[in-house]
Design brief:
Elements: H1 14-20, H2 23-26, H3 30-46, H4 52-70, H5 83-95, H6 97-101, H7 108-144, E1 149-154, E2 157-163, H8 164-189, E3 191-192, H9 208-214, E4 219-220, H10 224-229, H11 232-258, E5 266-267, H12 286-309, H13 323-347, E6 349-350, H14 352-360, H15 366-375, H16 380-396, H17 406-412, H18 426-431, H19 441-467
Parallel strand pairs: 3-4
Antiparallel strand pairs: 1-2, 5-6
The protein binds arginine.
């Protein structure tokens, strides 16, 4: 029987029951629902709205249900629309009248809002912790391959030599900003809507600050209509997930390219590769491709919620039930994708020789040759033109810049001396980029130190959240 059976003569049909239910998705947040209810009941008892003994029965009953669900012993009734009805129904069956008092001064509208916010917070902390692990893996790989030189690209054309460690650390900083975005989404979710009731608050003397404290929220929401109507914190969550997936996807794209026969920069381990059912030689970077593919779905989750929300009048509308699935999917997908990326990086083989070989190709020293002239007094634009002509000359004669004789250099400009040879070595070229944030060895060493400091600080952020009991 539905909770609202008093006003109805008929119940919904079997089809509409199923169509209207959110139980399958809600099962994910049974703990949040139960602990939200315990906090509500405790506060009701403290305020003298229900008796102490009712609260004790409610608490024992709810903890028992939590156990049953955790151990897979709880039998869900398919007639229950959502987790709130499933738990309350079972509680009332178990403990009788006290169970029927639990919902005093509460609506499923504030109940679902508080459950989702608590669940979002717990998903976000897990993501922050995983993001931390991923960045640790990246710094480890950067340290291990510190001196490896690769061609840096713009437009996918050889540009200038860079350290492979510098390239990996570029992703470190992207993921560092993702951590901040996840944290910001956590802060957005960290407000307690419980006590907003259906839409307008309630006549019972609820202490919303008390449930805020009991549930580890930062503060109570300030407006009851807003509290039950908006899901913008889930948009923040999905945006944070989307951006991080986009970063992972770019790295996946590079991993796919690097592992081609043409590049041969890395070989993925067997664990992170698959074969072909027909071509015996194949070793495919399936998991990198899959992560790239899943990025589309997570971005879809974000867009889907934006579209769901955009025309909703205040306050609660059933459309809001649709907000949970995408948010959970985005978090699970990002988490799995980060774990997969950690494994790929931890087990790949880096071919330093191939990278160096390519770093010499494609006239990657040209900028430094032009800088050589400019540092000897030639205006840079003029130097650029002369080196451009040298490159053209090389192309016509099938040579690299390193194959040119001093005479050939001098024919282009008398400013060239014997020491030009030193400007052509990719390792030296990278080393010379000493600006803060550049690819020079010393600059990258400093960068690694800064990365370690940032990691330590972010680990403290996760630890603090967990220690202050902010997640249920
Ligand atoms: N199953 C609903 C949801 O997930 C719970 C809130 C229902 N409230 C209501 N007035 N129908 O959004």
């Amino acid at each position: 029987m539905a909770l609202w059976s008093g006003r109805f003569e008929q119940s919904v049909g079997e089809f509409t029951q199923r169509f209207g239910a959110s139980l399958e998705v809600d099962k994910n947040m049974y703990r949040q629902d139960i602990h939200g209810s315990i906090a509500h009941a405790k506060m009701l008892a403290e305020q003298g709205i229900i008796s102490r003994s009712d609260f004790e029965h409610i608490e024992v009953g709810l903890l028992e249900i939590e156990n049953q669900i955790r151990q897979g012993r709880f039998v869900y009734d398919i007639n229950d629309e959502d987790i709130h009805m499933a738990v309350e129904g079972a509680l009332t069956e178990d403990i009788g009248a006290a169970g029927q008092r639990l919902h005093t001064g509460r609506s499923r509208n504030d109940q679902v809002a508080v459950d989702i916010r608590m669940y979002a917070k717990s998903l976000l902390v897990d993501l922050m912790a995983e993001n931390f692990s991923l960045r640790r893996v990246l710094t480890r790989a950067a340290r291990k391959n510190f001196n490896v030189v690769m061609p840096g690209y713009t437009h996918m054309q050889h540009a200038q030599p860079v350290l492979f460690s510098h390239h990996l650390l570029a992703y470190f900083w992207m993921f560092t900003r993702d951590f901040k975005r996840l944290y910001d989404a956590f802060v957005a979710a960290d407000a307690n809507p419980l006590g907003s009731a259906a839409l307008a608050g309630t006549t019972y003397p609820l202490d919303r600050f008390r449930t805020t404290e009991l549930l580890g929220f930062d503060h109570p929401t300030q407006n009851s209509l807003d509290a039950v109507s908006d899901r913008d914190y889930l948009l923040d969550l999905e945006y944070a997930c989307s951006v991080s997936m986009m970063h992972l996807s770019r790295l996946c794209e590079e991993i796919i390219i690097w592992s081609t026969t043409e590049f041969g920069f890395i070989t993925l381990s067997d664990e992170y590769s698959t074969g072909s059912s027909i071509m015996p030689q194949k070793k495919n970077p399936d998991f990198a491709e899959l992560t790239r593919g899943k990025t589309g779905r997570v971005i879809g989750d974000l867009v889907s919620l934006l579209v769901t929300m955009k025309s909703l009048p205040l306050a609660y509308n059933k459309d809001l039930q649709e907000c949970k699935e995408g948010a959970i999917d985005a978090c699970q997908t990002l988490r799995d994708s980060m774990i997969c990326m950690e494994g790929m990086i931890d087990t790949w083989t880096v071919h330093a020789d191939r990278m160096l070989e390519e770093a010499r190709m494609g006239f990657t020293a040209a900028t430094d040759v032009a800088d050589y002239l400019a540092k000897r007094g030639m205006p840079f634009r003029k130097a650029h033109e002369i080196v451009g002509e040298l490159v053209l000359y090389c192309e016509k004669h099938g040579k690299g810049l390193e194959d040119l004789t001093l005479e050939e250099f001098r024919a282009a400009s008398p400013l060239f001396g014997r020491d030009i040879v030193g400007e052509l070595d990719p390792e030296a070229i990278a080393r010379a980029r000493t600006t803060y944030g550049g690819t020079g060895h010393e600059a990258v060493r400093d960068q690694l130190r800064e990365a370690s400091r940032k990691l330590k600080a972010d680990r403290r952020v996760v630890k603090n959240i967990r220690e202050r009991g902010a997640v249920i």
